[in-house]
Amino acid sequence: MFKVQISKDQFHEKRQKGGQELQQQQSKLYEVIRMVKSKKPGKQRKAQANAPLHVKRKRVRARLQLDKPDERLAGLRSVTIRAGDTVRVVRGDFAHGGKRVGGKRNADPLTGKVLNVDSNKGRIFIEGATATKSDNREEAVPVHASNVVVTKLDETDKLRMQHLTADRS
């Protein structure tokens, strides 16, 4: 991508001529982001990998299964995960305990608050999802967003709750 440099006088002159040339030059400055319409899986994966962060952020979603039913959120199936939400791991090592996690098999699934969200990789960090390294240091283990369900929303952000509870009919 290249930028076109023009002086203020040229800018105003081209603007008065109808702006066609100016519009063409401005369109070169901005990369247009569109949905990939190809059916080829490789192109779809490439588009997802190279997507901007504000688009990747919206893909970090999980199913909503509240512990206590809430009428305000009726009809809402999934939400974008945020730090502060409480989630339950339903798939993977943290869903059922096991040797790798240092627990007993068929244990209760891990439930905890989301500490951090890695939008770039689509992973979340949960309280209690840790592994012991060889030097006996505890390190957080990322969990993919598709492997959890949200059991309690963080209601401190009023704008988010207003958006989630908006009438969807």
Spatial strand sequence of the major β-sheet:
2-1-7-3-4-5-6
> What class would the helix/strand composition place it in?
alpha+beta
Cα-atom radius of gyration: 23 Å
**Total helical elements:** 6
Low-confidence stretches: none
Q: How is the biggest beta sheet arranged? A: 7 strands, mixed
Tell me the overall shape: elongated
In the CATH hierarchy, the third-tier topology of the domain at 55-164 is known as SH3 type barrels
Question: Descriptors for this entry?
Answer:
169 residues; alpha+beta; SH3 type barrels; 7-stranded mixed sheet; 6 helices; 27% helix; 24% strand; elongated
Compose a concise summary of this entry.
The protein is of the alpha+beta class.
Layout of SSEs?
Layout: H1 8-16, H2 20-29, H3 41-49, H4 53-59, E1 61-64, E2 78-80, E3 86-89, H5 93-96, E4 111-118, E5 123-132, E6 138-144, E7 148-152, H6 158-164
Parallel strand pairs: 1-7
Antiparallel strand pairs: 1-2, 3-4, 3-7, 4-5, 5-6
Can you give a write-up of this model?
The protein is of the alpha+beta class. It has a domain at 55-164: SH3 type barrels, CATH 2.30.30. The protein is built from six helices and seven strands; from the N terminus they run ααααβββαββββα. The longest helix has 10 residues, at 20-29. The model has no long low-confidence stretch (mean pLDDT 84).
